[in-house]
Amino acid sequence: MEEITSHNSSNRNAALVIATLSAFITPFMGSSINIALPAIEKEFHVDAVLLAWIPMSYLLAAAVTLIPFGRLSDLYGRKKIFSIGIVIFTITSFFSAISISVSMLIFLRIIQGVGNSMIFASGMPILISVYPPHERGKVIGINVAAVYIGLSAGPLLGGFLTQHFSWRSIFIFTIPFGLAVAYIAIRKLTGEWAEAKGEKFDITGTFFYGIGITGIMYGISLLPDMSSLWIILCGIACISAFIVWETRIEHPVFQIKLFKASRSFAFSNLAALINYSATFALTFLLSLYLQHIKGLSPQEAGLILMSQPVVMALFSPFAGRLSDSVKPQTIASVGMILTSLGLFPFTFLNGESSMLFIVISLVVLGFGFALFSSPNTNAIMSSVDNRYYGVASGTVGTMRLLGMMLSMGIAAMIFSIFIGKVQITPEYHPVFIRSVNIAFLIFCILCLLGFFASLISGKSENRYLGVEKGI
Fold this sequence. Notes:
Helix content: over 70%
Number of strands: 0
Order of helices and strands: HHHHHHHHHHHHHHHHH
Radius of gyration: 21 Å
Shape: globular
Distance between the termini: 17 Å
CATH superfamily of the largest domain: MFS general substrate transporter like domains
Structural class: mainly alpha
Largest sheet: none
CATH class of the largest domain: Mainly Alpha
CATH architecture of the largest domain: Up-down Bundle
Number of helices: 17
């Protein structure tokens, strides 16, 4: 294990730059594609359910591989996994830009999702490895702010690129960023971090986990078809087998004992899962609403949607710094309540809803999410020993990705039940609006459940796995 230059100033700067830039381009890609979906729908003539698989395929691939790559980064080196991931992400951006069919695009999005999981499984642990504990909240806040800047730029810049240069230009836009990050990671970031080097990789657990998550998510997307229930049950059975297996082997791919050792870790992760489940599909749904119902251009729709992530980007660093001095779970709980208040008005969305109504709701939602995300991440990462940073970061990212998948799965399920496999033409606008209302009602209820999870986390005692706090 080589950590000779971990705490040197230039190395910290290099780590912060690559973590921040990669934290920008990956969410930028996600939010940009959401705004471009109507254009992709028109070019490839796809139905509403298949359209949802363009973002879902990316999320599913990332969710399935994030925990294994978190473990691999602890075993073989975080810098190595990060570098490979950013190269994969950049190459697939190029080939996605020249896709000739929706099948090719979805396949490339799957590969890109794998690259994304490698980036997120190792980027945050590298950052935390080179910064001392008392500065973690600050750098996590900067990192989360970069995520929200990417989310902010996505709708506006993605809308502009889609409107003036086609949706393909979105993928081309990320290529220079990917090349810059790859260069800095490979050439400027010195040292390596592999605290679990020498331990075995759990192939069996990885298999059960991958099949389980894929089965559950794919089954949800097939609802209300009865065959979907069998697929979901098979997925649940595999996840159950995964949990049992992980508790019985010496070197599991995922440390189940992290959840047993710290209720704060367990409930903070649960809160993150619920929060993303309740919020991610918002951009997908509102992008379709603004362009199909309100008749806005991609650029105009992006301008409206960016109001939420702009607020996130502005307040995330503040929330991160605050979580270094105030109990992070308390701040996260307040954020969850505000997020729920921001979601609730969308349950009344209709064809006559004003732009002011939408923007104010998005601003409240953005402020709530900013107060939740950085402190909640700080609470999770501060509750484990440094040898588990890769796994913990993978867990945080997996909760985020699973939440996003569940959010999109709920949206796809509602579309499947109420709209069916048809394009969203004017005759289907009333049922589309009803579907959006139902989705937001479900999201609002989920967010309230997340508040209680965050509250329980705040009342729990952080307990490390046999090490003293601060190590």
